[in-house]
Every structure is written in structure tokens, then in C-alpha cells.
Amino acid sequence: MLKKRIIPVQLLLNGRLVKTVRFGEFRDVGDPVKSSSVYSAQRADELVFLNIDRERPSVEPLAAVIAGVSKVAFMPIAVGGGIRSFDDAAFLIKNGADKVVLNSIAYRDKDIITRISERFGAQAVVVSIDTRRSTGGGYVLKSACGTVTEDITLAGHIKACEAAGAGEFFVQSIDQDGTMAGFDIPLIKEACRSATVPVIGCGGSGDYNQLRDAFLETGVSALACGSLFNFSDSNPIRAKAFLSNYGLPFKVV
Amino acid sequence: MIGILDLGMGNLRSLSNAIEHNGFDVQVTETQTAFDDFTHLIIPGVGHFRAAMGAVFERQLRPPIQAFAASGRPVLGVCLGMQLLAAMGTEGGEMEGLGLVAGTVRKLELAPDLRIPHVGWNSLTKKKDHPVYEGLKQDRDFYFVHSFAMQCDDPADVLGETDYGGPVTAAVSHANVVGFQFHPEKSEASGLKLLENFCLWDGAC
To answer: Is residue A122 included in any domain, yes or no?
Structure first.
């Protein structure tokens, strides 16, 4: 039986880890290689790194971090933030990334999704979608670290990216980011309905009950957590021990 | 020395890191020139069967890989690398594989509620005893990412299965050749154990 996944999500700024609230209020939370070593010991299922530095146009500093992480964490590593070309993606994969995460470029250049997918497989292309709740109901899609509004629906964007070759979606609620107030369950449900490939939900993790609710109420394959593991005594082993009480399956290693 | 064949298909750094982590000397190569120095050969890869076999044919690697296997030294295929061991692939049209394990690689045929690719941690059910399984418990989880799987002509070549809407070939073995559909280098302690066992194996069953 395929297991559910719990994924620590790590934001990178100038080679350091940071945590945000609603995509602002940066706080330094440590060194990415050391934290990844700890997450490995705590039996995380996968690691997601998102580079939020937009000053430097090169992915080389990001690749250097990933090369270090891949020496200490023998689990899948997804990396994104600022990928502008097929060559950027190939360079990150060569340096230890298993999946690349595309966000802003996925709205404008479907060809890059197709090229990466054809070369490295659909599973290597994760499309990240940042959303805000709309005043009229539904969701507005945001690119460029939440600063630009895109004129396409969630379902429409998911379908177009899937058709281009995306193998997974990382759906994030900006409203919930860093609040520790729980996941946006209607958002995750809508994404799971629209996608035929796996969906990772992100944004708002604050305690294990919220993880349980999101797993039990939606078809989500994985949940990504930032604040929960950065700022509390929680860790993936304890999260899975708690969630196992509710019949949710997790890996045995 | 453990050799890793680079077909330009995906993340090889994690695999070489995992072999080094286990304390073995490792060399990544794009050509056959170093094959004589290798005690073991690993064929990794993620991506497209046709693209990968295209790279094998273009670099004229099929005969030297087959000669390596015929020498009795252990050969390991990982993920797409395991699929390449088969006689035939069907991704992007029928194409000949390395022919080291009798079987055909076909797209997973699943009920509509199951998502493809099959991505994530799933259990490995051992179907027979093998030196690479030394010390590995039954039904541990390994990390899978694939849309195609090998169907062996001879059930005796099935080394392990996983369950994704029915049995899916997760590992194969034939004489001194083994293949893992999952990524041992991405499967933490259990995966590192399998790689260590492979590197210690002399190829005899």
C-alpha cells in the first residue's frame, strides 16, 4: 500500500533557512545541511527546498546547498525557486535534486515543463501553485513569490500543466502560511479533484490534529510543514506516531 | 571499485553519495573504458526508456554491458536502469533493452482512482531469498517513482513485489544481475543496506 508522506519544507535565503508568515516577516531558522541531517534522523519522507532569493539570477548557490544536503539525507529532494530555464533544472538535478519545483515560469512557458518531463520523467516536475482566497469565493493564483496575480483558475492551471507533463502539484495557501492555524482544506480538496497526479498540500501546519484533518478529509498524497517543525517540539516521527492512530499509513524503515 | 554508468538520465550524485557512505570506492563513467577496473556495475537512471536505450546504442554500450554481465561480476539496475535490463521496452514505441532479464516493460495498468506516476513510499515484499536481502526485514518501505514496470517472462526472476492496486514488480534477479524499481539511494537505512549488500556480493546465488 502506498504510504502518506510528511515533508518538511525549507525556505532558503542567501544559503540560510528562513521562515515566513504570509510570505513576509522573514526569520532565520538555521543551516540547511544540518537541519536536513536532523530531518533524516527524524524519518521525514522527502525534503522540499524553495529558494526565495530573487536578487541573484543564478541557481548555482542553490545547487551548492543541494549537493551538501544529498550527502546527509538519503531521501527524495525537491528543489525550486527561481528556475528560469531547462538548463537550470538539469543543473539542479545533476547536483542532487530528484525533482524540480516550478512556479512562476509554469504560467508562461509550458514548454519547459514538457522538456524536463521528457528528459527526466514526469515525476521530476513539481508545479508549485501559490493561492490566496478570493473575496468572491474560490482562489486567486499568485506568482513571483506572491506578488503577481495570474488570470487563470486553479483547475485550469492544473489541467494545463498536467497536459504539458507535470507529475505532481505543490499547492500552497498564502493566507495560511506561517500562521499555524491549519491547512486550507477546501483548497486541497479542489486541487485533488482537478489533478490526476499526486498533490502535496502546504501552508498553515501548527499541530498534529490539523495534519490528521487534512489527510482524512482530502485525497492529498502528502502534507508539507514549515512552522510546525521549525518552531515547536514537533517532528516527523512523532507526527506519524500520532497519525497512525487514525489508520493513516506511513513508511516503515 | 564500484562503477556507475552515467547515461545522462537524472540524479547520479545521490547514488554515488550512498555508495561512498557505505564505505566503497566509486567511479561514475560515461564510457566503457573503465569497465575492466570495476568489480560491480550499477546502471541508474530516471526518465524515458527509449531515450536511455538510445543513449546506450549511440555510445555502443550494449555489447560491453552484456560482456560485463557475462563475466559473472554483479550488475545492478536502478529504477529506469532496472527496466533497461529487460529484453523489451514499450515507452515511446517498442524498443530492444539490454536483454539481461527476460521480460517486457509496460505502462502500469491501474484503476482510475490510482494516480500515475506511482510516487512515494511503498512496501517491498520479498519473493525469494537472495544475498542482497541479507539482514533486510520483510515489508520495509522503499521510495518508488515510476509509470512503467517490468513483467518477467519467468516468475522465478521476480525478486520482490510491491502493491499498488495489485502486485507490481519491484525487484528482479537473474544469476549475477539484479534490478530495483525503487530508489535504494533514496530509501534511507533500508536502501543503504541493500546497496551495501550488493557491493559485498560476489555475483553467486
So the answer is: no
Q: Could you give the number of structural domains in chain A?
A: 1
B186 touches chain A (CB under 8 A): yes
B115-162 tens-digit pLDDT: 888 989 999 999 999 999 999 999 999 999 888 999 999 999 999 999
Residue A139, domain member (yes or no): no
Q: Are B178 and B134 in contact (CB under 8 A)?
A: no
Which chain B residue has the Cα nearest residue A222?
B120
**Looking at this predicted complex, what is its ipTM?**
0.88
Q: Which residues of B are catalytic?
A: 79, 183, 185
CATH fit for domain B2-200, picks 3.40.50.2300, 3.40.50.880, 3.30.1330.10, 3.40.50.10540: 3.40.50.880
- Phi, psi values for residue B155, rounded to 5°: -55, -25
The helix/strand/coil state of B146 is strand
Interface contact B119, partner A, CB < 8 A: yes
Residue A158, domain member (yes or no): no
Across the interface, whether the CB atoms of B121 and A2 are under 8 A apart is answered: yes
User: What's the pLDDT score for residue A157?
Assistant: 98
Q: Which domain holds residue A236?
A: 5-99+171-244
Residue B189 forms contact with A (CB below 8 Å): yes
A:B CB pairs within 8 Å: 120
Q: Residue A142 domain-assigned? A: no
Please, what is the Cα angle at A126 between A66 and A74, to 5 degrees? 40
Asked if residue B9 has pLDDT above 80, the reply is: no
